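Hi D.,

Good news: the full-assembly prediction came through. Inputs first.
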Amino acid sequence: MKFGIIIKKYMEDEDMLKLKGNLLYGQSGGPTSVINASAYGVISEALKHHQYIDEVICMRHGIKGALNEDFIFMSKQDQEQIELLKHTPGSAFGSVRHKLKDFKEDDTDYIRLLYIFKKYNIRYFLYNGGNDSMDTCAKIADYMNQIDYDCYIIGVPKTIDNDLPLTDHTPGYGSAAKFIANTMMEISYDMLAYPKGKVTVVEIMGRHAGWLTAAAELANISGFGPDLIYLPEVPFNIEQFKEDVKKVYKAKMQCLIAVSEGIMNEEGIFISSSSGLKDAFGHFQLGGVSSKLASTIATDLGIPSRSVEFGSTQRAASHIQSLTDVNEAIEVGRFAVRSLLEGKTDLMVTIQRISSSPYEVEYTLQPLMACANVEKTIPLEMINSTLNGVNEKFIEYALPLIQGENQPKYKDGLQQFTKFKFQEY
Amino acid sequence: MKFGIIIKKYMEDEDMLKLKGNLLYGQSGGPTSVINASAYGVISEALKHHQYIDEVICMRHGIKGALNEDFIFMSKQDQEQIELLKHTPGSAFGSVRHKLKDFKEDDTDYIRLLYIFKKYNIRYFLYNGGNDSMDTCAKIADYMNQIDYDCYIIGVPKTIDNDLPLTDHTPGYGSAAKFIANTMMEISYDMLAYPKGKVTVVEIMGRHAGWLTAAAELANISGFGPDLIYLPEVPFNIEQFKEDVKKVYKAKMQCLIAVSEGIMNEEGIFISSSSGLKDAFGHFQLGGVSSKLASTIATDLGIPSRSVEFGSTQRAASHIQSLTDVNEAIEVGRFAVRSLLEGKTDLMVTIQRISSSPYEVEYTLQPLMACANVEKTIPLEMINSTLNGVNEKFIEYALPLIQGENQPKYKDGLQQFTKFKFQEY
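Then the structure:
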């Protein structure tokens, strides 16, 4: 049941290759504000194809839900709750960080999965996640091929980190970037209130790839944004950092800095772990990199400074989603279902950019194995010559991704999020 | 030129009491996301009354702008930029923290102000701020009365802290509360992704009054909100706190906490300053209360925990303003101008609630001196019996204030903020 064989079958008889059964869908890895929009795309598309797909079954907490038979059945849910997925952050079905072992070494989980797949007649499998999740997805596909269980398997990409390879960008990134750019604008404008300000160090997610931190630069298009940006792609030099800050502060009497949580020094040691902060009891402090840098500025340069950490807000800010991102997240889900029904398998959905202006993309498929466990970082050609910011090439790349606003569904001034009934089949 | 006299004049001849000259407006204290909406109300209303008000002059950086003749002249600005004030956070004219001395002890600033008032024919003066700003406003009014310079003076309230007395609430609070409630929902939903989670401690502004922290409770109306809330109105007991956290974590395997930056122990010492965190170089760490509590939970209870600080985002989040708050902020500015033109002086605009359901308010005036330097805290009747949350009375009070959404003005996915021309008269 390799991809090549499927295509061959497809050439012979379109209907022959279509299986009849249930579709199993799961979410995995860190939540994004639009992973549920992809779930919406999957569910709404799959429920259209009754002749092949009887039921859309969602695993709770990713692959663990499959192993534990912890399922939510979509035909039993209110349509209103399914619609709300387009506006719901987090992971409506629950997520998991569970690495499947190589089945050649330990097939316990796989035997259990096969039993569950047969019990529930799972013939279509979609797994929505990032690098690690594509690894899980690829392993399951590999196993099912090996034991010749007929099932089509496709990965649906998501990650705010934007670090998946072979795709122009990843659903989840645009909305997080929009939150970051707009919040940086607000912090910048807020700082202008006083003629003599502070140094503000804003810490942004992204352990190995600086895409999110770089999105802070988009704020400068409006005239209110960061002065300095430090990415994990560039080795961090504390002396150069202090020089940069002094120069900006001298000119402006304030300085706004965006820094990735994942910056490392020349020796590859995370800055967040390189200084030994202890509390009064002698315990090591779990300190963020921004508070460490703010402390350094205050201590070594004598300039008042403070740190801001966006924390989980940046991946959960459903109240400021990019409409482009939401629509693409939905489309990625829909395209995955249509691809399954065309007999495609062992692949991940990818987004290919046709043009930036006007912005246009198309959806394609790439081998799962090529997408798993690979991290795409910012190319050096997008980083400025002083290594403390990004250039026009990055702007051209990222700006289209934050366009449009997905209006939240408010009731009494509060957003409405999906609440599913967790019931038996 | 006391208030009583003005009213007498008003009774005799409406036009007699109207002065002809310029209106001087300034912003002071911490920014809010709607102080510029009040500025919009002031400017748009004042520019309607050409027969009395020639020009609206805005001080840059509050009273310091008046002392330095650092002014922005509104008739010279593009109407589009004035309209954008309704969507611009921070302090578009700049703020200041400058306490005027008692003029009986040192009248240097006052003599300078009088010179400026005469030079620019200032006959109407509006100062937009919180407790301290009302003190400034009252002192200027007092001085101008003393030396018998004809000028009407009114304070325009603003503060996210909601701690001004004699007003039901304060413009700026509703929008900050809306951001806090919705962001707490998002953090809460994000936490549900994993079956076994962390303790998340969210630190919220409010040094002496817990109104903002209490707003986190509104998130629970949606079903996704904090488990525990700690306010500065209640003495903080670390042992009781640990018991509360243990209990919630045992039941739910996660716990979301909202804590005011201003919580104090039984002896009145700020928790944020009561533990002596030092870095590796022996310097004291400027630590937030949330990181200290998260550290305590990890160390003493052995439960994984993390801290989140909303920082200036909570007062600057123009992308999620309460429409009720924005409209009231505008109306407070308009009402202030109309009151000046009725010869009212030495007063602050206040909002009186007529009913919560349906929500209805009216605008009134209270003596400036009664509003200056007084802080209104949460009454105990709004706090729950276990002292770790707020009750229905608070919900009834706060929920109407976050209703409606003020749609930001986006261009290319980024908000548009006011940019004034800083030009000569």
